[in-house]
Amino acid sequence: MVIHQALGRLICAYCGHCWSEWMYTAEDNCTRIRKCTRCSAEESSGPEHVWSNWSYENTGECDQVRTCSRCDSVEKRTQHDWGNWEYEKPGECGQLKTCSRCSAQNRQGPEHDSSYFSQGKCSRCGGVNPVGKQSSAAKDRDYSFDPCSEIACCGMGCEPG
Predict the structure, then answer these.
(1) Which of 33, 26, 65, 72 lies closest to 49 in space, CA to CA?
(2) Residue pLDDT, tens place only, 129-140
(3) In a designed cystine with 152, which of 5, 27, 67, 128 is the match (CB 3.0 to 4.6 A)?
């Protein structure tokens, strides 16, 4: 037997191992090993969980859980069911979407729609935007319209005409 293993190690050193199939180390454990059929070398893998499907923990909440059927490990996550973006208030371009499960809200904006622009200002909120939809580079600029000034300035270097 000792000669057989020594010969096996020599062959594996030149040709590589001849691995068995992966096997779990215990019924309630997710660590797997495999052995070389020639030299008896062992290799182990990280955990290979057998996860259940994600399911919501409670009605009206967005926390989900799944469990490993072998070792009882648990993973949790939050999975909202977001609706579409909608304008938050009439006459404003801030947008809001709401989760249909837990009523959480997410806000963005202003997000000017190019269809509202006429003569350089938004007909929905009065904000100024030089061309079409607001770019991400322009998000921090002030797009408020001052009716007392001759022209509303968006901070992009425009000058009254």
Answers:
(1) 72
(2) 544 444 343 344
(3) 128
